[in-house]
Amino acid sequence: MKRQTDVLVGLVVLLIAVATIGAVAWVKQADIGKRQRDVVARFHDVGNARVGNAVVIRGVVGGRVQTIELAPNGWVDVHMKIDPSVQLPADPVVLLNETSLFGEWQATVIERNALPHDEAVQREIDDPGRGRGVLPGASQPGIGKLTAVAGQIAGDVANVAGRVEVAFDEQAAHELRGSIKNVSDLSTTLSSVVRTHASDLDVLSDELRKAIETLNRAANSVQTTAGRVDSATTSPQVRAIVTDVAAASTDLRRAATQVNDLSKRFATSQTRLDALLATGDSLLTKINSGQGSLGLFVNDPSMYRRTDSLLVQLRALAADIQANPKKYISVKIF
């Protein structure tokens, strides 16, 4: 009887131990007896990440953080066990981030082009000093850091509010009320001006309407005239006039050509006349200066007197020949 009790107690203890181990394994989501792939990511800082944190791929838990250990040159290596059936993204990177307010962290495997727009994260991912064979990793700030930053921002906002309160004192409020009153007075003045000149606006609108009507009548007149001109251009008389004008333009072009030729000939004649005048001027200059026989004759008075006496003698000789021709001419007939 006692032996049966001991066996029963042993079985109960064994069942409790197995249940406890199973519960712990279930809580830690351990994969017992399943082959897994080891993936290593290298970080500058892992924050509050712990062994056993989930590895999330495309929103699904695909593994667990196995170990976290320090690496040379200030790096931290995170070894992750991932199900071999899970396919990693193209160009994968690992982000460590907090998932709840209770300090739970996870490692998220994403593509490099899906990284958040954070310069610090991008700079840590692109650091070339981590070496080969490991995935690039970066950690995002946790709730504590965000709370501290939010507290700092709240303090800055409080300082700004205090400065605004100091600047916006009773005098500033009084000046603001005065400005509002001035705006109200200006609005009242504008309203009275509008009411005063409302009749003027009506008159102006009437004049504008009349001007538009006048423009419409003028446009109708222009349209009518254009229609008449269009109908007139299709008549035989207009075509005859156009033909005559074309013939007259041809004659005018011919006359213009003749005038052009005449002007060219006149230019040639003018050139020759200029040359003749230049030659005559040179000749007269030489005569006036006493050069040559003609110049000496014109400029020497004695030559004139001698010539005059020679003419007198020639006249006397001609009279003597007429009076006594036998004296000078003898005719003998054989």
How are the elements arranged and paired?
Elements: H1 2-27, E1 37-43, E2 54-57, E3 60-71, E4 75-82, E5 92-98, E6 105-111, H2 119-125, E7 135-139, H3 143-167, H4 170-196, H5 198-233, H6 236-288, H7 292-299, H8 301-323, H9 325-328
Parallel strand pairs: 1-7, 2-6, 5-7
Antiparallel strand pairs: 1-4, 2-3, 3-4, 5-6
Count of extended strands: 7
How many helix segments?
9
Secondary-structure content class: alpha/beta
Task: Round the mean pLDDT to the nearest integer and report it.
Answer: 76
Strand order of the largest sheet: 1-4-3-2-6-5-7
What oligomeric assembly is this protein in?
Answer: single chain
Terminal CA distance: 222 Å
Descriptive notes:
- The protein is of the alpha/beta class and 334 residues long.
- The protein has a domain at 33-142.
- It contains 9 helices and 7 strands.
- It has helices spanning 2-27, 119-125, 143-167, 170-196, 198-233, 236-288, 292-299, 301-323, 325-328; strands at residues 37-43, 54-57, 60-71, 75-82, 92-98, 105-111, 135-139.
- Strands 1-4-3-2-6-5-7 form a 7-stranded mixed beta barrel.
- The longest helix has 53 residues, at 236-288.
- It starts with a helix and ends in a 6-residue tail after the last helix.
Short descriptors:
alpha/beta, 9 helices, elongated, 334 residues, single chain, 7-stranded mixed β-barrel
State the gist of this model.
The protein is about 65% helix and about 15% strand.
